[in-house]
Amino acid sequence: MKLYKRLSGQAGVVLSSIIFCAAFSCDPPPKPDEAPVADFETTPQKVAVAPGIIDEASGIVPSYNLPGNFWVNQDSGQPASLYLVSADGKNVKEMKLPGAVNRDWEDVAAGPGPNAGVNYLYIGDIGNNNEPKSQVGVIYRIPEVTDANAGFDESKLEKITFSYPDGARDAESLLLDPATKDIFIISKEGQNTGIYRLAFPQSTTQTIAAEKVGTVPGVSLATGGNISKDGTEILIRTYLAVYYWKIKEGESVGQTLTQPSTKQLLVALEPQGEAVCMDTDRKGFYTISERSNAAAVTLNFYKRK
Q: Nearest Cα to 2, choosing from 290, 297, 300?
């Protein structure tokens, strides 16, 4: 997947968006009865990531079992592996997922699953690199390792297969609701960005028919997403921005995402930005990019103000 091919014919739109957002606030007007929304720095703290290991970074999530680290996945053409990346960017360790196939891994999520007290990793094989849009997607689920020197247990790898209710879709954003354990897939569309739900418990033996919850207003070409560990905040990113939602009490993830974002966050331009996640303790959020034609990429941290 190449950024310039994806945005072919939209260069004028992209440039206009950058100029407009640089000159004016892109945030929706605040409502008088709402509490102040979260705000984040617009200039990130950057740490270098050595090139040549994770040049096709497509998803990121903090490690819940190994604090101070992140799990990063790469997309099609790369190994069926997750990469454990330290917060300072100095250590990157490849950990293979035996039994899995990387057709086009586009995002990764972390959180609870079928067994109480176990943290799981969810890897979304949901893209369409080098092939037509797919009617069927796959999500791999496996317990997160508790030892950085250990490996993933193939006997515990589960495969969740699903189909879309409204035709073939390309998607790059995978969300896990830690409160319900429902999985959400956000399609990558120029308009009418779809929200698809796989309710818990998800079958690992039959193809699940995903439920279309609705569409995400105001978001085009979604390239990654994340729900905070405590289940109160949602991030969805595009190549140019990050959209933020605060989940209101009594609302579901699906209900929240069918409303305009609480805030649109300005972020630094990246070579091909596709991954975003909230920090475990919600002190800020992180992004990482595919290297594309750049010499290297950085792990970017946007601190909460």
A: 290
Cα–Cα distance, 134 to 169 (Å, whole number) = 6
Q: CA–CA separation, 265 vs 209, rounded Å? A: 33
The token duo for 160 is 């969740």
What's the one-letter identity of residue 243?
Y
Q: pLDDT tens digits for 34-48? A: 444 679 999 999 999
Please, what is the end-to-end C-alpha distance for the chain in angstroms? 34
| Adjacent-strand bridge partners of 171 | 187
Q: Classify residue 88 as exposed, middle or buried by CB count within 10 Å of its CB (0-12, 13-18, 19+).
A: exposed
Say which DSSP state 230 is in: T
Q: Tell me, what's the pLDDT at 37?
A: 60
88, 172, 174, 189 from 194: Cα distances, Å: 35, 12, 12, 8
Tell me which H or E stretch contains 20: helix 11-23
Residues 274, 59 contacting (CB under 8 angstroms): yes
Tokens of 63: 């490690």
Q: Is 229 helix (H, G, I), strand (E, B) or coil?
A: coil
Torsion region of 128: left, alpha or beta (phi above 0 gives left; psi -120 to 50 gives alpha): alpha
